[in-house]
Amino acid sequence: MEVESIKGDILKLDTEIRSLMDRMAEADDVVFAYIQQRIKELHSRKSELERKLQTKARKRKAIDTKPLVEPLAMWDTLTVQEKHDVAAEMIEVVYISHLSEDIEIKFGI
After folding, report:
1. CA nearest 100: which of 52, 34, 47, 35?
2. Are 19 and 76 in contact (CB under 8 A)?
3. What pLDDT was estimated at residue 89?
4. How far apart, in whole angstroms, are the C-alpha atoms of residue 17 and residue 41?
5. C-alpha dihedral over 74, 75, 80, 84, to 10 degrees?
6. Over 60: is that where the pLDDT of 16 sits?
7. pLDDT given at position 26
8. Best CA proximity match to 101, nearest among 32, 19, 44, 36
């Protein structure tokens, strides 16, 4: 139930962010600065909620680390490509925020 509530809050924040972004084209300098600050605040709250959601999902998901044990044990001897392949195995997606300079990594394991 809490997961659905968080998802609903994220959707509301997305809607408000989109609405503010639509208004930016018509805004003067003062209003533009206010909208930009508000979007930054909303995005920050959205990121917090997404992290909370991710934590809840991770608690329910069993993590199979067996495929990573050997490569991580010999990390210093791997080639750059092999390290890239291990990282690609672990990381599902990377989000980079243009508004708040945040980087969020979603792990696939």
Report:
1. 47
2. no
3. 79
4. 10
5. 110
6. yes
7. 87
8. 44
The CA–CA distances, whole Å, from 58 to 10, 43, 71 equal 18, 22, 23
Q: Which amino acid is at 34?
A: Y
Residue type, 17: I
Degrees to nearest 5, angle at CA 16 with 21 and 12? 145
Enter the pTM of the model. 0.51
For range 10-32, the mean pLDDT: 91
Residue 78 gets which letter from DSSP?
Answer: S
**One-letter amino acid for residue 95 of the chain:** Y
- Give the pLDDT confidence of 34-90 residue by residue, as tens digits: 999 999 999 999 999 998 888 776 655 566 777 778 888 888 898 999 888 888 878
Can you read off the two tokens belonging to residue 55?
């934590």
